[in-house]
Amino acid sequence: MSTPDAELTYEQARQQLAEVVAKLESGGVPLAESMQLWERGEQLAKICQAWLDGAKAKIDAARGQQPG
């Protein structure tokens, strides 16, 4: 059973993205499937980036609250 995208952790999304990349790099995937994998990879990359952006925002906010 797969986890809906909105519930993926960063680690889950990164792992799925690595699997997609490995399949694409294998070269043994038909064109139609390659296009689907590419689109899925784009979605997963956006999920990972959103997690990283959120973490950076939290760090920036914490640094802004530090004295001095």
TrEMBL record:
Which keywords accompany this UniProt record? Cytoplasm, Exonuclease, Hydrolase, Nuclease
This protein's source sits in the domain of life called Bacteria
- Give, as one word, the top-level EC class: hydrolase
What molecular functions are annotated in GO for this chain? exodeoxyribonuclease VII activity
Q: Which reaction does it catalyse?
A: Exonucleolytic cleavage in either 5'- to 3'- or 3'- to 5'-direction to yield nucleoside 5'-phosphates
Cell compartment(s), UniProt: Cytoplasm
Endpoints of the signal sequence? none
Q: What is its EC number?
A: 3.1.11.6
InterPro entries (alphabetical):
Exonuc_VII_S, Exonuc_VII_ssu_sf
**PANTHER family per record:** EXODEOXYRIBONUCLEASE 7 SMALL SUBUNIT (PTHR34137)
Protein name as catalogued: Exodeoxyribonuclease 7 small subunit
* Gene designation: xseB
